[in-house]
């Protein structure tokens, strides 16, 4: 029993993951796979925005520095200009160059004092440096425009710097951004100085921007790696909640397919509320239904063989004896037996054919509105005209309420015929058969009561089994196939209804068969 409970519950180790059963698989898969990508994409966009913001601030600063420095140098003596170049260059970590009206270099703060920063020689920079390669990859990801490389001209003059040329022509401050050999940025600001035609060029190497971006990138990378780790762990968690129960289902399905163990239990995983639990229960129900169908087919085949074998044996005996018997009366008796057996076999084949195809036929048939009162009256009248009631009195009673169902008229008629046939068989000649239709609690209920011996409670389910036949006293063997009530219940269940037997409500001798179908209101 404990083993069976374990099978139904699934792997006990999955109990540790009980909380996860409240989430659907779709939610878990989306969470695990999308979250790292969202974080990565958001981090990249944030870094590019952060770098752009820093550069914008430095552009504004370079513009202000160039204009202030140009105003300070305008009209100053050469000695004062040199002092200003040294002081501003040292305090602001700038390289300041002044060009005369002819475009020649007049003063350079790096020549007047030690340089406040140094740019590496391109030949000395390792192009495979991790930070440098990461910077380039980052630029490609965010789609940053390519920047021109910063190179010191061989002959330093105004013509070597396009921003200086534009500043002279437009008399406006010009800002240009370039890439240093080590991957940092270089900001050049060119501005006119006074009215003599002199020009100022300020160069700044804001390494702090690159360092800040790299630090932020490292932080984002650590966060992404952390979430990738979490994502990996969640993936393993997901595998525990999906793969293991699926493997259990696969193994059980394989054993069921191979038929090696008739008692194989497909785990139902009743505690799970996600798609895996739904699948497990659906597969379990499907397996049970399949087994039931296989058992029913096997039982049906065995019953068919048994039922046909008896009349065939009788028919064979009668036909073999015909050639040996000379007495006309005995030959006539043998012919009657042969004809009776042939009819019995024909009846069996017809009933078996109906019973075997009724499920498939009902699944393909389109339902329609059926007035049960009108149908019952037609069936009773037709039987009376054909004399099929054999001296029994059939009374039909129907409520005035709407007795309409959704179904197949011919099949519902078949149930009525079978119930009336059964009632006629067990009722005495001259007895009464009461067929009553009522509407009760949203259902249409047909009750057919006879005056027969009744059915003991322990046998009431057996009468609906195929080939079960309790012959009425005095009836010839073979007049009933034992399939009528089984076919009736099958048709009723195909209409989402029920068919059962109970005692008469008035307490008299006999049995009542009750057919209940969903009522159609519209």
Written account of the structure:
The protein has 522 residues and is α+β, with helices and mostly antiparallel strands. It has three domains: 27-216, Beta-Lactamase (2-Layer Sandwich), CATH 3.30.450; 274-364, Orthogonal Bundle (Helix Hairpins), CATH 1.10.287.130; 365-522, Histidine kinase-like ATPase, C-terminal domain (Heat Shock Protein 90). 53% of the residues lie in helices and 14% in strands. It contains twelve helices and twelve strands. The strands form three sheets. A five-stranded antiparallel β-sheet has the order 2-1-5-4-3. α2 packs antiparallel against α7, α8 packs antiparallel against α9 and α9 (328-364) packs parallel to α12 (484-494). The protein is rod-shaped and about 155 Å long. The two termini are 50 Å apart.
Poorly predicted residue ranges? 1-11, 13-17, 474-479
CATH domain fold name of the largest domain = Beta-Lactamase
Task: Give the overall average pLDDT.
Answer: 81
- How does the overall form come out from the CA principal axes? rod-shaped
Distance between the termini: 50 Å
Write a compact overview of the structure shown:
By secondary structure, the protein is of the alpha+beta class. The protein contains twelve helices and twelve strands.
Essential attributes:
Helix Hairpins, Beta-Lactamase, 522 residues, 12 helices, single chain, five-stranded antiparallel beta sheet, alpha+beta, Heat Shock Protein 90, rod-shaped, five-stranded mixed beta sheet, 12 strands, 14% strand
């Amino acid at each position: 029993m404990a083993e069976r409970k374990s099978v139904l519950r699934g792997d006990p180790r999955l109990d540790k993951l009980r909380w996860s059963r409240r989430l659907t698989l779709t939610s878990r898969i989306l969470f695990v796979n999308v979250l790292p990508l969202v974080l990565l994409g958001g981090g990249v966009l944030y870094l590019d925005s952060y770098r752009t913001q820093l550069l914008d601030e430095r552009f504004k600063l370079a513009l202000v520095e160039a204009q202030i420095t140009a105003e300070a140098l305008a009209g100053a003596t050469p000695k004062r200009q040199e002092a200003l170049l040294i002081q501003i260059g040292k305090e602001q970590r700038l390289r300041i160059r002044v060009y005369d009206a002819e475009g020649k270099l007049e003063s350079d703060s790096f020549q007047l004092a030690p340089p406040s920063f140094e740019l590496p020689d391109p030949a000395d920079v390792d192009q495979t440096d991790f930070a440098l390669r990461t910077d380039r990859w980052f630029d490609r990801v965010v789609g940053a425009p390519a920047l021109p490389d910063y190179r010191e001209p061989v002959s330093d003059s105004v013509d070597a710097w396009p921003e200086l040329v534009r500043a002279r022509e437009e008399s406006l401050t010009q800002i240009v951004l370039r890439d240093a050999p080590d991957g940092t940025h270089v900001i050049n600001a060119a501005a006119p100085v006074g009215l003599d035609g002199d020009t100022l060029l300020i160069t700044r190497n804001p390494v702090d921007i690159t360092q800040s971006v790299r630090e932020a990138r490292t932080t984002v990378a650590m966060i992404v790696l952390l979430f990738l780790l979490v994502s990996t762990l969640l993936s393993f968690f997901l595998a525990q909640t999906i793969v293991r129960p699926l493997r259990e289902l696969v193994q059980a399905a394989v054993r069921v397919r191979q038929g090696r163990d008739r008692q194989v239990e497909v785990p139902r995983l009743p505690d799970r509320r996600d798609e895996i639990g739904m699948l497990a229960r659906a597969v379990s129900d499907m397996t049970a239904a399949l087994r039931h169908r296989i058992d029913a087919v096997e039982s049906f085949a065995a019953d068919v063989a048994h039922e046909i074998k008896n009349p065939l044996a009788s028919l064979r005996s009668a036909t073999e004896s015909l050639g040996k018997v000379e007495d006309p009366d005995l030959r006539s008796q043998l012919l009657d037996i042969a004809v009776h057996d042939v009819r019995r076999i024909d009846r069996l084949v017809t009933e078996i054919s109906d019973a075997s195809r009724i499920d498939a036929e009902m699944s393909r048939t389109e339902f329609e509105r059926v007035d049960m009162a009108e149908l019952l009256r037609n069936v009773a009248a037709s039987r009376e005209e054909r004399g099929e009631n054999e001296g029994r009195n059939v009374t039909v009673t129907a409520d005035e309420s709407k007795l309409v169902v959704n179904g197949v008229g011919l099949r519902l008629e078949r149930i009525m015929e079978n119930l009336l046939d059964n009632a006629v068989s067990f009722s005495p000649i001259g007895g009464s058969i009461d067929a009553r239709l009522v509407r009760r609690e949203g259902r249409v209920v047909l009750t057919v009561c006879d005056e027969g011996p009744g059915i003991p409670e322990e046998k009431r389910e057996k009468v609906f089994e195929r080939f079960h036949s309790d012959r009425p006293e005095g009836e010839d063997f073979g007049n009933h196939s034992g399939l009528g009530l089984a076919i009736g219940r099958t048709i009723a269940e195909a209409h989402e209804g029920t068919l059962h037997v109970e005692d008469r409500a008035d307490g008299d001798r006999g049995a009542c068969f009750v057919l209940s179908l969903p009522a159609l209101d519209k």
